[in-house]
Amino acid sequence: MHRSCRWLLLAMLLLLTACSSTSFFYNRLHFLVPWYLGGYVDLERPQRQYLDELLASYLQQHRQEELPRYVAILDQAVVLLDSQVVADDIGALYTQAEQAAERLQAGSLEWMLALGAELSDQQVQVFLQELQTRQQEYAEKYLSRDDKEFHQDVYKSLRKNSSKYLGRLDAGQRKNLEQASRQLKRSDALWLQDRQVWIDYLRQILQRQPGWQDQLRQAFAMRGENASEDYNEVNDYNLRVIQQALAELLNSRSEKQDRRLRVEIAKLRGELLKLIEQG
To answer: How far, in Å, CA of 217 to CA of 220, rounded?
Structure first.
């Protein structure tokens, strides 16, 4: 379900809204990224300074090239709200948002590779061990659930994310989301299997033999294609279910919910435009 939850956020086109203010979050990536990486490996002072330089260059490029594309996606979303929404409409927006996420991943990979070349062998081993530790924690957290608990968690997540941008959902809307949640197939075990394969492969690449950067670039580019057939099938099925559920939710919105959604999109659009101007 992890990819499906991420899909819902992308499909709602509320990109970079993990914090209450997009610009607040975006403008503090210089501080947040080292803090996040610090959860995996301790960076020395020169490494932190180097990372800051890498991020400054990358974020400048991202503001100029990517943020205008985000604005264009939001504009398309607003147009859709003026008529009956179908699942294919949501799918088209999702495809654009997913492509943006892939470009973000590809661009981020370059500064991660540059930083990775500066890490000591000990730091690399600590990083890999932390990945494995979190793999075990995820397994304990997600696989301990029975199917009822899984579907309840999915429903709570869908309801929470939807309510944030539409306001309070009525009984019919909650029921439809609950029904959609029950239709979803579990992907947590498959996700963990795919993640373990990736960690094992990453462990080989990060021995950092000559050409390791190109190996990692290729691995990232092919990761989706190299996932198991079962994993991809479940994700594709869940994607269709959520597309339909989101279309039905948008079509059932009240005038009050419509106003709130449009205000939220307009706020995000305005913050993105400010970020572009700042760049």
So the answer is: 5
Question: Do the Cβ atoms of 14 and 167 come closer than 8 Å?
Answer: no
Three-state SS string across the chain, please? CHHHHHHHHHHCCCCCCCCCCHHHHHCCHHHHHHHHHCCCCCCCHHHHHHHHHHHHHHHHHHHHHCHHHHHHHHHHHHHHCCCCCCHHHHHHHHHHHHHHHHHHHHHHHHHHHHHHCCCCHHHHHHHHHHHHHHHHHHHHHHCCCCHHHHHHHHHHHHHHHHHHHHCCCCHHHHHHHHHHHHHCCCCHHHHHHHHHHHHHHHHHHCCCCCCHHHHHHHHHHHHHHHCCHHHHHHHHHHHHHHHHHHHHHHHCCCHHHHHHHHHHHHHHHHHHHHHHHHC
pTM: 0.82
Count CB neighbours of 142 within 10 A: 19
Cβ burial, residue 220 (10 Å; 0-12/13-18/19+)? middle
Q: What pLDDT does 54 receive?
A: 86
| pLDDT tens-digit series, residues 108-139 | 888 888 988 999 999 999 989 988 999 999 99
Mean pLDDT is lowest, of 8-17, 57-66, 203-212, 249-258, for 8-17
CA dist list (Å): 62 to 76, 155, 194, 272: 21, 34, 29, 12
Q: Indicate the DSSP class of residue 66.
A: T
Gap between the Cα atoms of 53 and 56, Å rounded:
5
Contacts of residue 158, Cβ cutoff 8 Å, sequence gap at least 6: 5, 8, 177, 180, 181, 242, 245
